[in-house]
Amino acid sequence: MGAGRDLMDFARRVLRLTEEVEALGEDVAQLQADVRSHERRLIRIETVMELAQQGRLKSPDER
Fold it and tell me: What is the model's pTM?
């Protein structure tokens, strides 16, 4: 009876660990999406800065 109880306890721990790994996978996917979004925004900011440094960016008054 002790071996059966140990086996059930082990199975519960494996299921709990599986759920935690799946939750972490979802968190990682969301973090990847956030990083991609930040990267796109950073590229736009860098582009604006480069255009401004080159004098190719016109102010709203110059348009």
Answer: 0.62
Is the model's pLDDT at 48 over the cut of 70? yes
Instruction: Provide the residue type at 63 as one letter.
Output: R
Measured over the CA atoms of residue 51, residue 56, residue 58 and residue 59, the dihedral's sign is positive
Segments making up each domain of the chain, as ranges? 2-55
DSSP secondary structure code for residue 56 in this structure: -
Q: How far is CA 11 from each of CA 4, 14, 53, rounded to the nearest angstrom?
A: 10, 5, 62
Place of tokens 């016109």: 58
Side chain identity at 52, as an amino acid letter? A
Distance CA 49, CA 47 (A): 5
CB 41 within 8 A of CB 35: no
